[in-house]
Structure formats: structure tokens, C-alpha cells
Design goal:
Uridine Diphospho-n-acetylenolpyruvylglucosamine Reductase, domain 3; Uridine Diphospho-n-acetylenolpyruvylglucosamine Reductase, domain 2; binds flavin-adenine dinucleotide; five-stranded antiparallel β-sheet
């Protein structure tokens, strides 16, 4: 009897369809094993270890009208307990190449090209170890190189949009493969035209590097202070990487299987950007709850002001570790912005906690927090 776990297509039919692609097909894989939140029910997984296999697999599945979920590191996904009805295409390519040799006068061309599935932090580490700067502020971010443009990954004052040279895309509608410029990708705060979209697969990314080994200018006070630098100054990339990893670890933002504070998708909510016209009213609402003398952490943003979601969550009554020991899903004990799985949480537990926090903040301050991870089969 053929195993039939998917309602849309049988495993045997899939095996026939994908035989020539080079993908490794596995049935009924618990997606919890592929995500950092460690939740998600079963699905058929087609693992693609080469770019050719990835392209061929996605093309076949698209042509057959079979739903596809792309997963690389699984660190920005909240997947339902009943899994995914279709095929999960696991991006497992690994190639990384540093291009340009400053000793031969090729300084202007220095860059790193990584296949989509390459581990992002390993890419950063390789560039720093080779003596190049540029990517160090994005050290310790879990997941793949290819996912970094999807939500315009950012940390410590740097976003990939400002470092990317180009992105190699498979256009799923036309089948065309081409390098595109960052300007074509509609980057914004934790978003791009690739997020929540099935239009394209990132096959590779290329990032510009600094040949002198210095860091990008430090744009985040906490990091600059940790390095004894002024904002806007640079420091050797290796020192900045070390400082970033230290700061991130203190917040549970570096994966550590032994630490449940890192069984998360990182920040669960984005920092809300309030349009300029509404900022005064929001500040007044906040002051009426926390008092006029309490400073509210904010950051400049395009067309508005960005408020700290972590601060709003804490001030709305959700402390670190909420709702307390014994709960399967809790806020991280190090950082209110991370929702965490303490070992036995389901996607439903995490959704329940997320709604409670989101609704509490809305009730207290009139601000609706939006989730940062991509949700599959669940809605908040
Ligand atoms: C502890 C922790 C800390 C984090 N810190 C940060 C942080 O500081 N800053 C930050 O921005 N994020 C952070 N994140 C979120 C996450 O690491 C990033 O968003 C990361 O880029 C996701 O990569 P991934 O390979 O795990 O993507 P996945 O979770 O596998 O996928 C995420 C989304 O991208 C799509 N996708 C993946 N690969 C491709 C591809 N090649 N082409 C097209 N679509 C694709 C998927 O379909 C999905 O919709 C953190 C997460 C954790 C767990």
C-alpha cells in the first residue's frame, strides 16, 4: 500500500514526479525538527542539496500545481500542528565563495557569494576570518543566507538591504533565473517583496565586503558602547563580531539547544512604526499609563517613529518569562520580545500566548503589534 500522508498528492506520485530532480524525498517528517521554535506537524519533505535540484524541484511542483513551502533554517517560521499539505522544499545548498583579492588591487570588487542554503553565521564568520569587514553586525543570526533578503534581516543598526550587491532569483511564474539588484526587491523594515510571497526562490546572494577588515560604521549605541567607540566609528570586524555574539547571547538570541530561551523565532513582533500624524496621541496614551516622566524608547523610521515592541510588552504587564514556570510556551526569561517553547509547546500554545500579548498591548496602549515570523496554517 502506498503511504498517503498528503491530501493533495500521494508519496508514490511525488516520487515519480521528482525522480529526475535530484531531491531527496522523505515522507511524514515532523516539521518541528526543521524549525527553531520546534513546533509544526508532519509533511513530505524534498531536500535539495544543489541549486540544480532546487530549481528542478520547484519547477516540477509548480507545474503540477502542488503547494510548496520553502524552508531553509526554519528560524522565522511558525507552522501549524497539523503540518503542511503539499511539499516542503528544504533548501540545503551550502556553497560559499569569497571573490576579489585586495593584494591584486581588486578591492572595489570584494564580495562574498553564498548559495541560498548556506548557514548565515558561517558566511559571516568566513568573511571575518578571511580578513574582510561588512557583515559583522549580523553575526549570530540563525538561518540561511538565502533567507536574509526575504525579511531584510537586520540587527545592531544594520540591514542586509544596505550590504547586498545582488540576489539570484528563480522567477516561479516565468521559470527565468537572473541576478536582481537590491532596488528591485522593495526592501523595508523586516520586509521585502519576497516575504509572504510565492513569486520567487532566492538561489544565491552576493554581499559587498570591506577589504580593509574594518566594520561597517557602528550605528547602534549599545554595541558602540560595548566597543568603547562613538556611533559612526568603525572597529576591526573580528572585534565587532565578538561583541555582537556576546550581546546577543545575553538576550538568548544565539541558538543554544540547551537553553529554552533560544527555542524561538527571534523577535516575535516587529517594532511598531507609528505614522508621524499619530505619534503625539500614542505618546499621550502611553504617558497616561506609565506616567509623564518615563522615557519611551523610540527610533527614527521612514514616515514615522518606531516604538520598542519589547518595552511596550513589558509595560503592558507581560514580564520576562510570562506567564510563568510550568507553561509550555513563555516569553523568554531574557527578552520579552521572544516567544519560546519550553520543550513541550505546540503551535497552538504559541498562538494563544501571542494573541494574549498582542491583545494586552492593544488594550493598554492602542497599538497593534504585528508578528515578524511567517505563519503557516495558523493565523494570529
Ligand atoms: C534566536 C533567533 C534570533 C534571531 N535574530 C534575528 C535578528 O537579529 N534579525 C532578524 O532580522 N531576524 C532574526 N531572526 C529571524 C531569522 O533568523 C531570520 O529571519 C532568518 O533570516 C531566517 O532564515 P531561515 O533560513 O531560518 O528562514 P526560514 O525560517 O526557513 O524561512 C523564512 C521565510 O523565508 C522563506 N524562504 C526561506 N528561504 C528562502 C529562499 N531561498 N527563497 C525564497 N524564500 C525563502 C520561507 O518560505 C519562509 O517564508 C532570529 C531568529 C532566531 C531563532
Amino acid at each position: 500500500m502506498p503511504v498517503r500522508t498528503s491530501r493533495v498528492v500521494s508519496f508514490d506520485d511525488l516520487r515519480d514526479l521528482l525522480t529526475a530532480t535530484g531531491a531527496r524525498l522523505r515522507d511524514a517528517v515532523p516539521l518541528a525538527e526543521l524549525t527553531t521554535l520546534r513546533v509544526g506537524g508532519p509533511a513530505t519533505v524534498a531536500e535539495c542539496a544543489s541549486t540544480d535540484a532546487l530549481v528542478a524541484t520547484v519547477r516540477e511542483l509548480d507545474a503540477a500545481g502542488i503547494p510548496v513551502l520553502l524552508i531553509a533554517g526554519g528560524s522565522n517560521l511558525l507552522i501549524a500542528d497539523d503540518g503542511f499539505d503539499g511539499v516542503v522544499v528544504r533548501i540545503a545548498t551550502e556553497g560559499v565563495e569569497i571573490v576579489g583579492d585586495p593584494d591584486r588591487g581588486e578591492v572595489a570588487e570584494c564580495s562574498v557569494i553564498a548559495e541560498a542554503g548556506a548557514n548565515w553565521d558561517a558566511v559571516v564568520a568566513a568573511t571575518v576570518e578571511a580578513g574582510y569587514g561588512g557583515l559583522e553586525c549580523l553575526s549570530g543570526i540563525p538561518g540561511s543566507a538565502g533567507a536574509t533578503p526575504v525579511q531584510n534581516v537586520g540587527a545592531y543598526g544594520v540591514e542586509v538591504a544596505s550590504l547586498l550587491r545582488r540576489v539570484r532569483l528563480l522567477d516561479r511564474a516565468t521559470g527565468e533565473i537572473r541576478w536582481v539588484e537590491p532596488a528591485e526587491l522593495g526592501f523595508g523594515y523586516r520586509t521585502s517583496i519576497l516575504k509572504h510571497s510565492a513569486a520567487a526562490v532566492v538561489l544565491a546572494v552576493e554581499f559587498a565586503l570591506r577589504a580593509d577588515g574594518s566594520s561597517a560604521p557602528l550605528g547602534y549605541r549599545e554595541l558602540a558602547n560595548a566597543l568603547g567607540a562613538a556611533e559612526g566609528e568603525s572597529r576591526p570586524a573580528a572585534l565587532v563580531r565578538e561583541a555582537v555574539l556576546r550581546l546577543r547571547a545575553g538576550k538568548g538570541m544565539v541558538l543554544d539547544a540547551a537553553d529554552h530561551d533560544t527555542w524561538s523565532a527571534g523577535s516575535f513582533f516587529t517594532n511598531p512604526v507609528i505614522p508621524d500624524a499619530d505619534v503625539a496621541a500614542v505618546r499621550a496614551a502611553i504617558a497616561s499609563h506609565v506616567g509623564p516622566d518615563v522615557a519611551v524608547p523610540t527610533f527614527p523610521a521612514e514616515n514615522g517613529v518606531k516604538f520598542s515592541a519589547g518595552w511596550l510588552i513589558e509595560r503592558a504587564g507581560f514580564a520576562k518569562g510570562f506567564p510563568g514556570e510550568g507553561s509550555p510556551a513563555r516569553l523568554s526569561t531574557k527578552h520579552t520580545l521572544a516567544l519560546t517553547n519550553r520543550g513541550a509547546a505546540t503551535a497552538t500554545d504559541l498562538v494563544t500566548l501571542a494573541r494574549r500579548v498582542r491583545d494586552g498591548v492593544a488594550e493598554r496602549f492602542g497599538i497593534r503589534l504585528e508578528p515578524e515570523p511567517v505563519t503557516v496554517g495558523v493565523s494570529l
